[in-house]
């Protein structure tokens, strides 16, 4: 039997609640020093802005916004 898990949290940037794979989701350090997840919409927006400035986009790992398979 295959089991799947996902985490649910608020995006540190926009505050929307979303689900994600806790091992693959992009995150950033909050003011308190803890790592907080960033939703797909905010990462996409950030990467568009980075490209416009001539910077490399941040990588979004495959499966970052999907459930994690647990064996």
Which descriptors would you attach to this protein?
about 70 residues; two-stranded antiparallel sheet; two-stranded antiparallel ribbon; about 20% helix
3D structure, described in words:
The protein is of the alpha+beta class and 71 residues long. It has one domain (3-70). The protein is built from one helix and six strands, in the order βββββαβ. The protein has one helix at 40-52; strands spanning 3-5, 7-10, 17-20, 27-29, 35-37, 68-70. The strands form three sheets. A two-stranded antiparallel sheet has the order 1-6. A two-stranded antiparallel ribbon has the order 2-3. A hairpin with a 6-residue loop joins β2 and β3 (17-20). The chain starts with a strand and ends with a strand. The model has no long low-confidence stretch (mean pLDDT 94).
Question: What's the quick description here?
Answer:
With about 70 residues, the protein is of the alpha+beta class. It has one helix at about 40-50, and strands spanning about 5, 5-10, 15-20, 25-30, 35, 70.
Query: How much of the polypeptide forms β-strand, as a percent range?
Result: 25-35%
Figure out the total of helices: 1
Domains counted in the coordinates: how many?
A: 1
Strand order of the largest sheet: 1-6
Write down the overall geometry: globular
Most strands sheet: 2 strands, antiparallel
Low-confidence stretches: none
Question: Which percent bin holds the helix content?
Answer: 10-25%
Per DSSP E runs of 2 or more residues, the count of β-strands stands at: 6
